[in-house]
Amino acid sequence: MSFSKEVKEELSKQLSPARHCQIAELAAMISLCGRIIITENDRYILKIHTENLTVARKYFTLIKKTFNINTEISIKRNSSLKSSKMYSLILMDHDIVIKVLQAAKLIDEYKEVGENLSIKNNLVIQNVCCKRAFIRGAFLAAGSMSDPEKTYHFEIVAVNEPKAKQIQDIINSFGMDAKIVTRKKYFVVYVKEGSQIVDLLNVMEAHVALMNLENVRILKEMRNSINRQVNCEAANINKTVMAATKQIDDILYIKKVMGFSELTEGLEEVATLRIEYPDASLKELGALLNPPIGKSGVNHRLRKLSILADNLREQKEELNYVNKENIN
Question: By CB distance 3.0 to 4.6 Å, which of 15, 115, 146, 325 could disulfide with 153?
Fold first, then answer.
């Protein structure tokens, strides 16, 4: 089972004790995967279509618990996906449909169907607890989550921009930073920050999924921290090796061109030790000197040797150039 399905499975078993929260969750589900049919006799039929049995089961439970009614359920095979099933939950009783739609504020006093799910105007989602329930219903109806082992991504898909904006506003009312992107003909409300997805799971009251996600985040952060530390140490070792190699090349060049006899006692001692201990750190070289000196002192002497080697190379190049000119 995917992580997204695990979250939905947990949410399907989460039932708010308050009727107003149940209505808010139901409003989200109807808004995102429902369809209202008006017959020639002005009779209303409410249909919910979903490929997820978990969503169908939750919708059935909400209808029964909130309004104490049963809904007809039909299961149809999806013609485009041979192994997939489409679950259709249908309310045929006109009076009950009107009752449900009015409770969810999806229909006005004149029985006109609208998209009045704005957090500013719709009383169904004015309370914080009802906003939680609404997000839960929206995720069940049209949401998904990626496997946190791979990436962090939470999204809810809406068929038009106003619906997406309403969902975004409700999510952001909890201090989130949900964004909207278009994908083909749909509008997708998404959150990609791991810590915010954890907060969203808490808002929806998916506490088991929250703990599972947190465990994954902790392990990933530990692995990333270890990798950063190893990379840093590897870079430092590489830098130290390259510096030591350059120092030895400079010292050997000085020894070849002029020898160590003209060096000061301190430079000669450091030069000799560097050749003898090519893998030693500056601190270790300093401890071998008599008397011992610190890293900065060793580094200062090695820099002097490097400058001397560079000067000797320049002098050799100038001499070669003069000789070449004289020959010509």
Answer: 146
